[in-house]
Amino acid sequence: MSSATAGASADLAHTSRRAIVAACVGNAAEWYDFAIYGSLATVIGLVFFPTQDLATALSAAFATYGTAFLVRPLGALLFGRLGDAHGRRTVLVRVVFLMAGATTCVALLPGYATIGLLAPVVLVLLRAAQGLAAGGELGVAAVFILENAHHARRGQTAAWHTATMAIGIGTGMAVGGVLSYLFSETGLDSGWWRIAFLLALPLGFIGVQLRRRVAETPQFEALRTDSRLADHPARELWTYHRPAVLRGFCLIAAGSLAFNTFFIFMPNNLISRRGGQLGPVLMVTASALGVAAIAAVALGRLSDHVGRRPVVIGSTAALLILPLPMSLLALRGSLVSLFVAEALVGVAVAGVLSVAMLGELFAVPVRSTGFALTAGLATALIGGTAPLVAQLLVTLVDLEAAPGIYVAVMAGLALIALRSWPETAFRELI
To answer: Which CATH superfamily does the domain covering 17-418 fall into?
Structure first.
């Protein structure tokens, strides 16, 4: 290899690393913004909804939480198509701006006691805006990272998308926990919880600046140069990639359901039904998310050596076995039992949500739309509704094992879908 060729290769590798770092930092900021609502659901329910009954307020807060997921497919269609038509980088800048703006507005929104019914109405609209941004971020950021990865390390590199998602959500939990510990005795009227949402502004600024300075992915640039852009990516998905969408839906649904059940519903349920303290519960959940982040990178690296299928099938099988006993363990009321349950399930979720495996299914012209729409539909219909469904199951059926059974059933369906999933680890991206 000549010195000029070696230099060009080094420059390309440096550019790719910078692009991956920018995408990951922005991804963490995005998911911090999105998750801070879930971490403070018990507080938000009492501030924005006309009831002092914690269980009722929590159900209303979970319903609003689900709103952001219901609009995700719209965000996936909108931003996924923009990503396939105009480039991944452009979309990544826009979604950070939208997410940070909506989250900041939540921080400034007066509660029910001040403006009445307008408060929950505006809150729902702001959560919808967050959902649009998340629908774009989930797919386009994952594709951007995947297309900048070295072919021999796609699994490990793409896993950083899952890891930084966990880090962002965990940071949101930790911030909520610290603020609760420091200020909860001052009462909700002091507005201490708003600080967590206001942090979205500087985080969003950092994310935008980093993403504005990176180049487009080499694969998209080659596609644009050759004039091979898809005119109607969604139509092409339905015509040529329907099996991939259906298989991906089942897998992402299982992972998203498990995540939202154990990391959103379980902590809040422990607080509302068992009298747990908000601050310690959130810190425990944040710690478990740290375990999940480490596991994501480790399992991604493993998938580069043994293949995607063994890692994902093993992780999905764990989600079939673990949820029932872990849900009973998590609801015992002990912080230690909550951590053990969340950490074990979190490791399994990290393996299930293999970014590389799903992204590798779709060709470059439709990859952004395909990933975003598949993940958006799964999280909208199954994952986002999980806390509300779990809350209703526990309240109406009075069976604490019900949420765990629900997760196990979805994991079983995902295992069936994986039977026909091709191995994609050792082939070039198409």
So the answer is: MFS general substrate transporter like domains (1.20.1250.20)
